[in-house]
Amino acid sequence: MKLVSRRSALSAGTTGLVVVGGLFAHLPQAVAATGNDLSYVCSTSSGIYDITLRAGSSRSRLVAKPGKPLAPGKVTLSLRLPERMVSDVLKQIPATEAPAQAAGISGPRLSGTLRSAVAISHGGRLTDAGWPSFTLEATNTEPDHRGPVELKGTGPVPPVTIDSPGEVVWIAPNLNLDLNGDEGNTDARPVQAVCALKSYGTVMRGSVSGSGIARAPGAGSAGGAGANAQVPDEDPTCAGMPGPTEPGGGYNDDPETSMDTPDLPKAPPDARHTSSAGRPQCARQSGFANSKKLGAALPLGAQARIRNSVDAWVDRGDNNYIQYRGYILAVPAATQATMLGFGFMPTTVTAKVAQVPTPRSNGNRNANFRADFWSNSIIPTVAENTVWVKAATKIQVAGVLVNGTPVAVGDGCAAGPIPLKLSSYLGNNVIGANNFTDGGTYTGHAEVPAFSGCGVGEDLSPLLTATTSGTGNYVQLESGKWCTLNPNNPDPSKCQPDTNTEPKTITVSPGGEVTAVAKPFEIREADGAFRSIKCETATMKFTLPKGLWQPRFKLATIKSRKFAGCTYGPSDVPVTVTANTESWSLNVRQELTDAGDIIARVYGLQLTVAISGTDVDGDGDEDSCRLRLGTKGKTPSGKEFDGFSSIGGEYSDNSLHGTSVLDTLASTDCPAGAWTPNWASGEGNFAFRPGQKITMSKTPE
Fold it and tell me: Concatenated DSSP letters for 508-558?
């Protein structure tokens, strides 16, 4: 293999470094819902354009048993090209009058060939799916067509045989597109477009159940016998993290990774401190990192090995406080990605991102973590309800291909150490709470320092530094449940069946402004006379984010809440119902079905029911009554407080089927017997308009 210099391979334009690794970088990327449009940025000789890709399979469900072919069958790919791109491409191709044009059809006569290095993600590994090229034809052939053009092609793709359980995901990080114009000009050279995925998404997804690794497609499959060659990794399995006094264990002593820095809160004085050997655990994580200079979102994956609860501070009094500390290690992996450089050259970089020691860490490369949360999630706490992780990482560049040509970067091309701080908010007693071992969303920013040691015969380090290094690189990781191992037998098979699962991500489509209306909404006494308060409508208005990687907590903040046509009792006495001033929060609680259906709840509820100038008890006198509903709580010392309730349930058919439990917080000036001072049930089916598809990624069995 001939290695070339920067002068011959990079003179056409600057290349950008892309690392699909991360702090934890070698298990499967998170699986999101299928059927979404995937956004790509494409470069031609005339400009840069945004296009979309949508894939469909002839199979309604992609399901296979272990060791049996998982066959998508025929796949249809649809590309949507913007009008400006179509116009620019047609200008570059000399036209020869074709019979269709002579007949008066003047619409865009585009066709093309699409090549994509589709990969399969499963069980911690990426494999080449071996997909063939697709011939694409324009579906917009009407005369004088204006606007975007759709190119569509259909063809068979090879099956893959998998012996292990869980999700199987097809991803297409890069596209190569040859565009042809008028069919009458066979001598015209196609216009080439190189496209890179803007934000992570899946082409298709399927599932199996069993144990093993992906096999290559069978004989005759497109892509050849080596189509499913594994991207090498080191050891992506769950394994016991060493204890504090064992080799490889213990906290990182670098002050940059300390959990006692001024920016972090102190434990309350009454919290009792204990130390122990801790608990060995594992957690799968996946997400993305935005490269600010390249303007792209890069997929991440992880199998984190954890030592939890090495230190603990506990105050189970009214402070309601627990703090756990420990450390984490992720085994590095070599990963590949192809992106566009600033010179519009397709550039493939193989890199390894690893946790590394720093000059002040005494050789320790572990990441320190700290979790501040509650002892009881339904009462107030002084804790920040947050998990922090601090680590040092290093990017090691192993190889670079520019337009398919190897570029010699040498063995020492690297950047780092890179300080990285991530945090995850756990919620609270108002908006709902989650234990950190149940998984959550971790976010932070990374500053990539200058590269060094890059190049053979000439120094390529300044080039990589100029195109990649800098601040503002956003990182987001979703964590699955933490698996607890037996410290005396740290075998991954000892994890509980519902732990060490794939991270769960939320996908929303189309998102935007939503009006959710329940017709009717009813609050009914749980005992006594079973009186009820009925409203013709209960309306919530809020904004939903659009797309992949949305958070489970505070998926939406609800400030607009109105109740109309409300009455009390069998006599339909008119009443007004109002919400508390605090905002409500829409949270996704759990996955309900394999299809990604969810259970969601709206948190932060307190309601006030008011009656004014109406005879409620039939004694002939006008009554004025105010009834407050929510959740009645009591602190460990016995102090009562007015808490917040929630309403929710299954989300299906564009509706949240909500039920709630509401305690009586106060009954002011209400006649005796007007309402039983106990708990009541609330119920209403909130129809979302416009309809919203909200799904959570499937957890493998």
Answer: EES-EEEEEEESSEEEEESSTT--EEEEEEEEEEEEE--EEEE-STTSEEE
